[in-house]
Design a protein that fits this description.
Blueprint: H1 2-10, H2 19-25, H3 37-41, H4 44-59, H5 73-93, H6 97-111, H7 118-135, H8 139-145
Helix pairs in contact: 1-4, 4-5, 5-6, 5-7, 6-7
């Protein structure tokens, strides 16, 4: 958690997370597979993603409960997109474009999620196009763009 919080601080994002919140979040009911906590904690950018997703959910007035995700899919999908954008922006700023590329298949699958509203689908697709553009550039060019 510390490394995820440190990355958020380094890049000027206000979100912060705790191990307790992350544990609760990873045990909620969800229509998607939850990541393995040990695997997630080994990847600082995924930790950033989860911290931001939790924070965005709470900022929208929700508490972390067992059914918070399944009962609030539209809000959660918005929080997820914000989390993905920050996760991949930080990874790109850290010049970890191979990591960004490794997440591109996930991003493509998110665009096909039948639980997205039409507006959300358009925003996810726009983000996918931006990330695709990053992957066609050098790390220096992407860092300048961010």
């Amino acid at each position: 958690m510390a490394e995820g919080n440190a990355l958020l601080t380094r890049y000027g994002y206000p979100q912060r997370g705790t191990a307790e919140e992350l544990s609760a979040w990873l045990h909620t009911d969800t229509p998607y597979p939850n990541p393995d906590p040990a695997d997630l904690l080994g990847v600082p950018f995924l930790v950033v993603h989860e911290i931001v997703e939790i924070d965005e959910t709470k900022r929208r007035g929700l508490r972390i409960t067992q059914d918070v995700i399944v009962r609030n899919m539209e809000i959660i999908n918005d929080a997820h997109l914000t989390a993905a954008e920050i996760e991949l922006r930080i990874a790109a700023a850290e010049r970890k474009l191979p990591y960004v590329a490794s997440r591109f298949a996930d991003l493509e699958s998110w665009c096909e999620d039948p639980l997205l509203t039409e507006d959300q689908k358009a925003r996810y697709e726009s983000f996918r196009e931006r990330v695709s553009g990053w992957l066609r550039k050098s790390a220096e060019e992407v860092t300048e763009e961010l």
